[in-house]
Amino acid sequence: MKILIVGGAGYIGSHMIKRFLQTDHEVVILDNLSTGYEDNCQGLPLHHIDLKDKDQVLQFLKTQSFDAVMHFASFINVGESYHHPEKYYQNNVINSFHLLDAMSRCGIKNFIFSSSAAVYGEPLQIPINEDHPIVPVNPYGTTKAEVEKKLEEYRLNKGLKYISLRYFNACGAHLDGSIGERHKPETHLIPLILQAASGRKKNIQIHGHDYDTPDGTCIRDYIHVMDLVEAHLLALNSLINNGQSAIYNIGNNQGFSVKEIIQAAETVTQKQIPIEMGERRKGDPAKLIADNQKIIQELNWHPRYSDLNTILSTAWQWEKKLAKLHD
After folding, report:
1. Direct distance between the N- and C-terminal alpha carbons of the chain, in angstroms, rounded to an integer
2. Where exactly are the structural domains of the chain?
3. Catalytic residues
4. How does pLDDT run across 250-285, given as a tens digit for each residue?
5. Which residue in 77, 123, 198, 249 has the most C-beta neighbors within 10 A?
6. How confident is the model at residue 48, as a pLDDT?
7. 3-state DSSP helix/strand/coil percent for the chain, to nearest 5?
């Protein structure tokens, strides 16, 4: 199969590419490099195209014969989405519509979408299954919900087959240390904790310590990026083998608090990590934990690397590499 990876120069896209290198699929990358890195493409063809230019996207797809598209090219900073909702709507929603329209006009029927647990908003029950109401509480989550609605319209009216994967907290780095997480700026908890351990940050700020959790800090479900991309590969195989459109949670079915992650990171790094207590952030639920039984039962997916030690050890190996580059 010939697969287009949109956003392949980013964190998850780069791990997806590395996984595809172990298969017989042909992979092509489309990325505008606004947040990604060219070296993440690992020598595969990169087409420097912005989804905002719908005519260029259409012309590009017309010159290829793709069997499927994977879409990773979203902005992901929840805090920023409050300050610049129009930026998030343009990139995450309108640009996705440009891609879907071009696919439809070129007869490309298989689509895998990076969605988010942010579509659920404030959880009504824990763990959260895929039937939970869609009530996002921040602009980022709203953009993901908008695209999911459009996917269903394309399924009903255009014959699109899609799988939407609702990520919980993607984390970790490749086991071989060659690629990992490097956002500009970094906003994810685990790399920020490890930056404090390596000395690239003076401390880690805990946003709120009076939540309704055992230690007062937020609880999240963390999934290793290598388990995440394996779910994408299983989703792709399902679609190209005449599977049905579907939505799946990608999580670990257990949660860890911010303080628990910091304590585990101190064990892995053998460093004392300085902490600063801060105020709660807008739109942060106390607990977000996935019910992952649907994808386990339907696609036979099983997380292999999402224990806390593997997550932190691989991320620490990557952070030490980055810290050396910044010396």
Report:
1. 43
2. 2-171+223-250, 189-220+253-325
3. 140
4. 999 999 999 999 999 999 999 999 999 999 988 888
5. 249
6. 97
7. 40, 15, 40
In DSSP notation, 141-193 reads: HHHHHHHHHHHHHHHHHH--EEEEEEESEEE---TTSS-----SS---HHHHH
Residue spans of alpha helices (H) in the chain: 11-20, 54-62, 78-83, 85-88, 95-106, 139-158, 189-198, 225-240, 258-269, 293-299, 308-325
> What pLDDT score was predicted for residue 67?
97
CATH 3.90.25.10 fits 189-220+253-325, yes or no: yes
CB 51 within 8 A of CB 6: yes
Contact 232, 112 (CB under 8 A): yes
* CA–CA gap between residue 280 and residue 133 (Å, rounded): 24
Q: Kindly report the three-state secondary structure assignment for every residue of 257-276.
A: EHHHHHHHHHHHHCCCCCEE
Tokens 């905002």 appear where? 52
Mean pLDDT, 10 residues at a time, the chain of 327 residues: 97 98 97 96 95 98 97 95 97 98 98 98 96 96 98 98 98 97 93 97 96 97 98 97 96 97 98 96 91 98 97 98 87
Domain 2-171+223-250 = CATH 3.60.15.10: no
Q: Distance of alpha carbon 214 from its chain centroid, rounded?
A: 27
The size of the chain, in residues, is: 327
In three-state secondary structure terms, 222 is strand
pLDDT of amino acid 139:
96
**Which tokens is 230 given?**
């394996």
Specify the pTM.
0.96
Say if residues 233 and 17 touch (Cβ distance below 8 Å): no
